[in-house]
Amino acid sequence: MKPRIHPVSRPVVFRDRAADVAFLTRSTADSGERVTWEDGNTYPVIDVETSSASHPFYTGSRQVLDTAGRVERFRRRYGTGDAPRG
């Protein structure tokens, strides 16, 4: 790697306000706001709207779409698609 071209990576706390969860990881992001972590050290904190703790895909609370109804409506409108292609 070339020296002095890569951003500095440091420990940062990401705080998910929706799920009231925080986690410590490494990032190049920085913030003026600081928080004291469980180990007694102070780290920059970045507030995020969504993380794996609150995203519907990871929590299993996502809504199931009516795909069967959409497929049937498509088939009624445009045919079944069983015709041979030329």
Automatic annotation (TrEMBL):
Superkingdom field: Bacteria
Matches recorded under Gene3D superfamilies: Ribosomal protein L31
Keyword tags: Ribonucleoprotein, Ribosomal protein
GO molecular function: structural constituent of ribosome
UniProt xrefs under InterPro entries: Ribosomal_bL28/bL31-like_sf, Ribosomal_bL31, Ribosomal_bL31_B, Ribosomal_bL31_sf
Gene Ontology BP annotations: translation
The name this protein goes by in its record: Large ribosomal subunit protein bL31B
Organism (species): Streptomyces nanshensis
Gene: rpmE2
